[in-house]
Amino acid sequence: MTRTARAATRDGFPHARSGFEFLRDDLPFAKHRSDAPCLSIGLPVHDGERFLEATLDGLLSQTFEDFELIVADNASSDATEDICRAYAERDRRIRYIRRPANAGVLANFNLTFEQSRGRYFKWAAADDIVRPEFVARCVGILESDPGIVLCHSNTEIIDEHDVVVGSYRYRSGHASGVSPSGRFNDVLREDRWCFALFGVVRSDALRTTRLLAGHVGSDRSLLAELALRGRFGIVADDLFRSRDHPARAVRRFPSHRLRAEYENPALARRRLLPHWRIFGEYARGVRRAELPLSERARCYAALARWLGRHHNWARLAVDPVVALAPAMEPALIRLTHSDRRWLTERLRRIRR
Questions:
Q1: In angstroms, rounded to a whole number, what is the distance separating the alpha carbons of residues 268 and 145?
Q2: 181 and 302 in contact (C-beta within 8 Å)?
Q3: Are 106 and 138 within one domain?
Q4: What angle do helix axes 293-306 and 274-288 make, rounded to 10 degrees?
Q5: In this structure, is residue 344 part of a structural domain?
Q6: pLDDT tens per residue across span 274-318
Q7: 117 with 142, same domain?
Q8: What does the alpha-carbon distance between residue 90 and residue 250 come to, in Å, rounded to a whole number?
Q9: What DSSP string runs through 58-120?
């Protein structure tokens, strides 16, 4: 059945429910349900047949069972729809939503949250895996400490064959301090690796943000906004498995500009300044947050320090050059090895 709602837009893409097909007709919109689960898991997917079953099996095998799983299919053309429908028929916690056309990654991520009902929320990528105790451990930490807004775990990197090829461990005390400016600085220091986007977050805190706001790098600015809302909790064990494979977006599109249309079709053929946009969104998040003047000043100081990390100053300088002469970008990618560098530096590789 197709349900239509008036579409609104955010940064050029629709983010209200419009023309979606729901698998079941017995599930009204989220706001009309009174028997809401504790947790909502949002799984956006497009042509994810290769790893989707492993991802679904991992989510449905969680020791914590009080959740709904919202699968938003972005008009897949492979076997994704068949897989999702088969799983939804077997497990009543799954709600499958299919878009009639590909709306881009960011809009599809946001849709899963807009459809959610739980007091906690978690995004899941269609190629990653979580260990059975991931949700229980994260929810337990959130339940025990109301000052924590997001909980995640340390991370294993696996390849397309499920072989562990590396790991990522958060720095001690990452974004867990009392000071909003300190947490903001921690997130900016780690903003090349946004694994925490797939943690468990308080839905009320997430609603105060702009979600994934329609620009490339929206995951970075969203995590920075959340750090200004409250503390992060990190489970020390490696309960999250992030899959690195050739079809991964950062491999297929090894620059922000190349990923723009994939993430938000409204950005196609635009002259973009993606790193300037990220810088501006960080500043915008600080302006939007309710902070004492002294903390606001410290946040801006942290943003100034961000310029010196990961060659961010150079990325800002290159943005206008690539915007004016896009043909130069492939050479710059080869020069900087930016198609591979995201998996180096802070990530520990497993040597064989």
A1: 43
A2: yes
A3: no
A4: 170
A5: no
A6: 999 999 999 999 999 999 999 999 999 999 999 999 889 988 998
A7: no
A8: 33
A9: HHHT-S---EEEEEEE-S--STHHHHHHHHHHH-TTEEEEE-SS---HHHHHHHHHHT--SSE
What single-letter amino acid sits at 299?
C
Residue indicated by tokens 């090829």:
165
Question: Which residues are registered as beta bridge partners of 297?
Answer: none
For the beta carbon of residue 62, count every other beta carbon within 10 angstroms: 20
Q: How far apart are CA 197 and CA 252, in angstroms?
A: 20
Indicate whether 352 belongs to any domain. Answer: no
Check pLDDT > 90 for residue 201.
yes
Quote the tokens at residue 164.
Answer: 């562990």
Percent of the chain with pLDDT over 70: 84
How many domains are contained in the chain? 2
Asked if the structure places residue 346 within a domain, the reply is: no
Residues 162 and 174 in one domain: yes
Question: How confident is the model over 67-84, as a mean pLDDT?
Answer: 98
Residue 106: give the domain boundaries: 1-126
pLDDT tens digit string along 246-264? 999 888 888 888 899 999 9
CATH number of the domain enclosing 59: 3.90.550.10
